[in-house]
Amino acid sequence: MPRARKLLTAVLTLPLLLGATACGGDGDSAGAGEKVELSFFWWGGQTRADMTEKALNLYTSKHPDVTFKKTWQANQGYFDKLATLTAGGDPPDIFQIDDNYLSEYAERKVTLDLTPYQSDKRLDTSKFPEPLWKYGVVDGKLAGMAFGENTQGLVYDKTLLDKFELPAPTMGMSWEDYIAWATTVSKTAKVPGTQDPSADFKAFWVWLRQKDKDLYHGKELGFTEADVTEWFTLWQGARAAGATPTPDVIHEGNVTDITKQLVATGKAATSWVWVNQMPELKKNVKGELGVTAYPGKTGSQWPRASMFFSVFRGSEHRDTAVDVLNFLANDPEAGRILGTERGLPSNLDIREQVADTTDNPAMKQSIAVQDEIGKTFGAAPSVPPAGHSVVKNELIKSAEQVVYGRQDPATAAKAFVTAATSAIGKG
Amino acid sequence: MITAPPEPRLRPGPATPRRARGRSRQNLAGYVFLSPWLLGLMLITAVPMLLSLYLSFTDYDVLSPLSEVEWVGWDNYRRMFTDDPSYWHAVSVTVTFALVAVPLKLLAALGVALLLNRAFRAVGLFRGLFYLPSLLGGSVALAIVWVSMFNRDGAFNSLLGFFGVEGQPWVSDPRYALETLMLLAIWQFGAPMVIFLAGLKQVPAELYEAASVDGAGPARQFWHITVPMLSPVIFFNLVLETINGFQGFTAAFVLSNGEGGPVDSTLMYTLNLYINGFVKLDMGYASAMAWVFLIAIGLITAVLFRTGRFWVHYNDEGNG
Q1: Radius of gyration of chain A (CA)
Q2: Which in A213, B51, B68, B116 has the greatest CB count within 10 A?
């Protein structure tokens, strides 16, 4: 009977045990100076893993006393593991984190405040756009170093559209025009024109900003039940018109896994992604992909830190860890290796250098598109409050209630606002 | 019972201490032999269990150190019962799952065991084949295969298409997702089947012979000999499978990407517990859920034992 407990215990302890045993490896060959081994943890695909390992090896070749225990995994389950490692008192020295959880970890004092390092230039952010590094500030402390800039990207199957001589979606087209366009695609190409983004917080967010609202105002919601109802109703209309796939396919596309995006699986002509995901997405698609801004009036998207690197506050080698971050962000050679895979490089000099020298077509495209959208960027919101990840999940739940026809938009909107309010209220 | 007067203890006779010492040494040896298990129990089960009992009265959020948790009394329990609709939704999903899957699984197990409880060629092979799915038990791989079999372009729909029936996106449709999970659970009937087979072998053949002589047909033989003789085994399987049924986690997790979807249709109790603990980082609340779960399963098992008195017949009780 205590199996539920055992399960939980096992879940809790296993990563710790594995972590402990893994600690034993590496760091052989005695040398001069103090040997430092930093644990480094990130999520991502194989492309990211290869690049990151290469960049970290470069650091080791320049600082032979510093080695890394590198651990990476897919996005799903990453934050479970990070949380259990933290609970066990043994989080990695350096870990990748995004705006879903940055506030959560910063408010619980897991992350090291990087402000002192920033002010004495041990962490040099002078070449970063200001809104970008500021996105990592939580309660006045720099909790994470923005590593990569990205923005929302509407990615479409160019090969398919060309085949049927259909126009590509364009920047600044209204939501109504976009839905009409998608309906035409569905009818002509016999492939649903667009994934239904009603469950997608980033599309909802852009749409809200076009109405001079926002997803959050500080630690409160920046929208009302009426806004959500309108959003759900907009997409209910799109589904009725045949612009989107069937509910079960929409559900399949409502996952964060990049390989399951409908444009990659061929189940829709467009998907809603972040621009920096193009290289990974490209790897999963045979045809050509195009990317543009989300629909609606321009100026509503903003330069967002795609992710951050944070240092564990209790790390024994904080200074070294911060030096590694500084290296990854500002060293030209490291910048060349890492490219735009995590987003456009935060350091503007490096960004220019990568744009000039990269031979990866997907990266070239990300840079070009983001430059294009970047011309119209609006002001960046501050980093979402703790509870954001729950709000995201609640939006999926409520939107799907409408998609499956189990609730009308108003009922689902009410449930979502209630759940979202309580989620960020606890933070 | 009348016990001997306590005088001997007062008299420190030479025999008593030696015997006591001998006994305690014997006990010690026993404990030493038990120690791997005892240590495991203490460290891996008992200590975390007690800790989780404590945490269930706190606002522990995983990330903050244990020293900073705040005692919130019965708040977590109160919230669960009065202020969390998704909790009750998960309870109803789990109860539905167990009520349907457990009896059907046992029926399937018993049915196949009866078929396999006779001598024919390759009977061993069939027993092995039917048991195979259970070996794969809670495996993630099996759940992944199940999902791909039952999605829109899965093998199951191809089969239906062969008969001219239009398929459904079984796993991505909130109307059928839970049923798909039930089917997976039922399909893994091998473990109770093997136990049923062992039980069937224990039924003395004379009983059937005597019944045939008296003119009882197969149905009567089944109801009046097989079922009563098998009842302890049925009871054992029922208790075990009920507990298992309530704890279904892996398949639901894999099918729904850990979210219990589509629209909460597969939000099993343990999955909801996991989401609260590890996604929402509300570990105090999740601990409280675990304790309520433990008590609920304990109560259900107790009720099963109670009813067992009326229908379980043990051979050694004579009249049963």
Answers
A1: 22
A2: B116
